[in-house]
Amino acid sequence: MVSPLGLGTVKFGRNQGIRYPQAFDIPDENELADFLALARGLGINLLDTAPAYGMSEERLGRLLKGQRQEWVIAGKAGEDFQDGKSTYNFTPDHFQRSLERSLARLQTDYLDVLLVHSDGRDAEILNDEALIRKLHEFKDQGLVRAVGASTKTVEGGLKALELMDVVMATYNPSYVEEKPVLDLADQINKGVLLKKALASGHMKGSVQESLSFVFDHPGVNSVVVGTIDPDHLKENARAVYEIFKNRGKSPNRD
């Protein structure tokens, strides 16, 4: 079960090469510990991280000591970020090394979700049978509980749902091109994590309006929002609570 609001952690470890409207300083770990406690107190249990998020994995590994069972951790592989730029590698061998590195950094022996961190060439990446086989091997070995892809195209999202368990797609009031991905996920009961539901801070309209729009789609399991601002987190959580309260539904989703 995942909370309908997930917490993206790119701002826990990286403030270069980002697309947010304002620059920001990376919080220290005491501030992040308080922030994670606030998130958990608001009912959030999903954390989204990646090797491309700078120090995010290492910091979470230290911050989540003794709390692992309280959180659902979604990680990624395929993109790395170093010296101010991203590099990509989608070979099975790299995914093996990347997962082992992520587990060590996070100080855990499994990830709940492992996603392909696509560079936009979704179809080419997901047509690699050896890579897909390797991802399912991770599941068989108990290293991950579910596999999928963070995609950037409709074709890629549909392919991810065909081959794996979860897709991370983009959907918001200003961008609905990937709705067919959500439609298929709902039809075949696959998982959907949404990114950019608030348009990375560039949204038009209110948080309440944007989140209400995306949760109108029955295929959406959780919306991952990256923030390090306690007030923003509270605002997002209040909006989600009101949406589900008004609809008479449970906020936790498979």
In helices, the fraction of residues equals 25-40%
- Report mean pLDDT, rounded to a whole number: 94
CA-CA gap between termini: 4 Å
Regions with pLDDT < 50 over 5+ consecutive residues? none
Structural class by secondary-structure content: alpha/beta
Under CATH at level 1, the class stands as Alpha Beta
CATH superfamily: NADP-dependent oxidoreductase domain
Taken as a percent bin, the fraction of beta residues is: 15-25%
Shape: globular
- Quickly count the helices: 9
CATH architecture: Alpha-Beta Barrel
Record field, number of beta strands: 10
Strand adjacency order, main sheet: 1-2-3-6-7-8-9-10
Q: What gyration radius follows from the Cα positions, in whole Å?
A: 17 Å
What is the CATH topology classification name? TIM Barrel
Write the element-wise H/E pattern from the N-terminal end onward.
EHEHEEEHEHHEHEHEHEH
Biggest sheet layout? 8 strands, parallel, barrel
- Number of structurally distinct domains: 1
